[in-house]
Amino acid sequence: MTHTIALIAGDGIGPEVTKGVQRVLAAVEAPLAWDEHPAGLAALDRGLDVLPAETIDAIRQHGVALKGPCTTPVGDGFSSVNVQLRKKLDLYAAVRPVRNLPGVPTRFDNVDLVIVRENTEGLYSGVENEVTPGVVMSMKVATEKGCRRIAHWAFRYATQRRRKKITVFHKANIMKLTDGLFIRMAAEQHEHEYPNIDYQEAIIDAGCMRLVQDPTQFDVLLLENLYGDVISDLCAGLVGGLGVVPGANIGETHAIFEAVHGSAPDIAGKGIANPLALLMSAVMMLNYLADTHSDSSCRACAEKIRRAYDQALADGCKTGDLGGEMNTQQFTDAIIERLTG
Length: 341
What we know:
12 strands
């Protein structure tokens, strides 16, 4: 069985790290074929829309995409490619596993978290208007359907992955309707469908304090859109930064696996970018294919790659962002050596 993957190399360092990941996947003989399409600045440079219809169509056709980082302007310019993809494909579950890696020292040990973020509602709904000159308003949107389905997804995921506990971070003491709806749907899922998973709620400011005191007290974190965006990056900082964590955006019928760091245009073309985050996302993609297509070969490839990059890091193989001296190709070669050696 060969799985055709829609490939978006992205902007800046995207093509470099994507090439490295493709080399690793080829070395492990993952059963994948590629259908590459542009998005972001790469699409604009070709005279296309920032998110071309052909790119969306390819993801719909194949069901799965691997995506490098795409540039998003701050304050003005075109809207985020990531946000557009999530809305157009209804990728309502953003998933960010965060764990300590061998050879990457941090302030905390034994960190093993999964952040599950609602991906389509909240303040990121983009409902904004100018009330009067000098006064603007942004509306936070929460629906019963959206809150229930992300809660169900999180509890199902926790059960399948044999996780122990879900903690919802919220601000329902202030936003009683929106965040109140979110925690009510989560509590109902726990009570009526998933009593096997321990359930907690934490006001987000206190939860953040507890996270930086001892992240090992948490397991799966469930959050609405904006909170999830912030907390997932905070948690990445607990284990070494955005260069060592993967990410996925998953819906009922489509999924995109992506590097969660930026496009880093200042180092683009220098061959020094770290491909690890996108490679870890590709491992998530292989496991997703194993789950959705009952393909054990994808699971085996995912485990081989995970062991190889863990061993490479433990052996001191690192790019500059992790305190090493390897370039992109050398780090990729080090992983491949541990796959085939």
